[in-house]
Design a protein that fits this description.
215 residues; alpha/beta; Metallo-beta-lactamase, Chain A; six-stranded mixed beta sheet; 6 helices; 14 strands; 22% helix; globular; binds fe (ii) ion
Length: 215
């Protein structure tokens, strides 16, 4: 069941329709910034105008369009930066305060526990961030799409497993919050995606691979 104290805010940044997020706790006003990139001034202004206290940075993965603002944000807020220990060295940000985390590890922001779920496929270290009722999906799952698997570290078989056996097992009322605005809406329920997302309609792995990779 969703906790009414959970705060989630979506912020569109940059030329690639990236979404950064705040996720945290309405009671304490403490938040983590997910995927700080492109426009750190905007992200900081959004936090300051609502009197939110940035206590951590969470990275869904290390691609530059999700992480190129980490160093800038760290100059303003001296907070830990959480990224999967599975992420490829070439995608690790070169910054201070880096904390490498394991699958299912939880990060506490105020009174909210955020579960970091490893969902490889787009990169080996892709994480989704889960609190009951809400899932920030980065470049793993988009509204009506999923992340590409042809970049270094990409693996379409792992993507299939992540989509069908990890994300697909979460409660269907879960709202997904993607890493880019590529679909017809900014968010969607997992239930709606199971019904309409073309990458969640595959009858088996081979069908998914041919759709994702054109094999
Ligand atoms: Fe990416």
């Amino acid at each position: 069941m969703s906790d009414s104290n959970i705060l989630i805010k979506q912020i569109m940044v940059g030329p690639m329709q990236n979404f950064a997020y705040f996720i945290g706790d309405k009671k304490s006003n403490q938040i983590a910034v997910v995927d700080p990139a492109w426009d750190i001034n905007l992200i900081c202004q959004e936090a300051e105008k609502s009197d939110l206290k940035i206590t951590a940075i969470l990275l869904t993965h290390g691609h530059y369009d999700h992480a190129d603002g980490v160093c800038d944000l760290l100059e303003r807020y001296d907070v830990p930066v959480y990224i999967s220990q599975q992420e490829m060295p070439i995608y690790m940000p070169n910054c201070k305060n880096l904390k490498k985390i394991k699958d299912h590890e939880k990060v506490k922001i105020g009174n909210i526990d955020i579960e970091c779920i490893l969902t490889p496929g787009h990169t080996p270290g892709c994480l989704c961030f889960y609190v009951p009722g809400h899932l920030i999906t980065g470049d793993t799952l988009f509204v009506h799409g999923c992340g590409r698997c042809d970049l270094p570290g990409g693996d379409a078989k792992k993507m299939h497993h992540s989509l069908y056996n990890i994300i697909g097992k979460l409660p269907e009322e879960t709202i997904i919050y993607p890493g880019h605005f590529y679909g017809p809406s900014e968010t969607a329920t997992l239930k709606s995606q199971k019904e309409t997302n073309p990458y969640l309609q595959s009858k088996d792995l081979e069908h998914f691979l041919s759709k994702r990779m054109g094999l």
